[in-house]
Write a structure and sequence with these properties.
This protein has 288 residues and is an alpha+beta fold. The protein is built from seven helices and twelve strands. It has a single domain, classed as 4-Layer Sandwich (Deoxyribonuclease I, Chain A), CATH 3.60.10.10. Strand 3 and strand 4 form a beta hairpin.
């Protein structure tokens, strides 16, 4: 049954993506990315002065104005949760952008919902896998793309986290899978999405992940993120990037607000993409 489900996941991804899924588990994903090391620095593309990233749970585009709003954004990287495969593909075509989609669950209208990345940057490799909601038995998707952002390669990780569970083990399993991919990675990293951190315990899972990998939790100004029980659900985590600006404006186009971040790299223009030994330096978590 698991093998059949995995095969279906891969087939769906290949059918609806401009970029194919090249790895369907974290270990294979890490291997695929590490294989790019030797050629990653050969790009002649100019490096952008800054990169704008947009992260948004679009609520399956139930409000059609959300799509119109997205078409007007200047973001070079759009990371969507609860995206719809057919809508995302058409949207990327309209923008003349590349896109990759990781399927999650089927909607009541028999559409394929999942997480997606739409970008004007070259997508070098993409990986996707699923974890299952323990009560609803619906899959939640994770998507990883290695993007050639000028002379650098950025890892973009898009997550729609498990929501309904007793305890936090299922959420921890999702986070641990991401850890396998980004562990000891020295290039620019963005880990973002709808983490469903609606409780203290769930938030602490994310905080431990931030601390383990020396990530920075983005602070937004203004900050109108959705906060059930006072805890924000949506986050952008970064490493080896300078955040120039970040905001989360009010929006009635979805049940989540869009997160918009502008970054530059903290590294030289021509670094090697490499995994290194983890640092022992300890530092406090970024304040929220």
């Amino acid at each position: 049954m698991k093998l059949a489900r995995l095969a279906l996941t891969v087939l769906l991804a290949l059918a609806v993506n401009s970029n194919a899924i090249e790895a369907d588990n974290p270990a294979s994903c890490r291997q695929k990315i590490s294989e790019l090391t030797n050629g990653a620095s050969d790009s002649k593309a100019p490096s952008p002065e800054s990169i704008e990233v947009l992260v948004w749970n679009v609520q399956k585009f139930e409000n059609h104005s959300a799509l119109r709003w997205l078409k007007e954004t200047p973001a070079q990287i759009i990371m969507a949760q609860e995206s719809i495969a057919s809508i995302q593909l058409a949207f990327a075509d309209d923008l003349n952008a590349t896109q990759v989609f990781s399927p999650g669950y089927r909607t009541f209208n028999n559409e394929t919902s999942g997480v997606g990345i739409i970008t004007k940057f070259e997508t070098l490799v993409s990986c996707a896998w699923q974890h299952q909601e323990p009560w609803l038995l619906t899959p939640k998707a994770t998507l990883v793309s290695a993007l050639q952002t000028g002379k650098q390669m950025m890892l973009a990780v898009n997550l729609h986290a498990i929501n309904f569970s007793i305890g936090t083990q299922e959420l921890q399993d999702q986070i641990d899978a991401i850890s396998v991919v980004i562990e000891d990675y020295d290039g620019p990293i963005v880990v973002a999405g709808d983490f469903n951190t609606w409780s203290k315990a769930r938030t602490e899972v994310l905080e431990r992940f931030i601390f383990k990998h020396e990530l920075s939790a983005t602070n937004f100004q203004p900050d109108h993120r959705v906060r059930p029980f006072s805890y924000p659900l949506d986050h952008i985590l970064t490493k080896n990037l300078n955040v120039l600006a970040a905001q989360s404006e009010r929006s009635e186009l979805s049940d989540h607000t869009p997160l918009i971040m502008t970054v530059t790299s903290t590294q030289e223009l021509n670094p090697e993409l490499a995994f290194s030994h983890p640092t022992k330096i300890e530092r406090p978590l970024s304040k929220r």
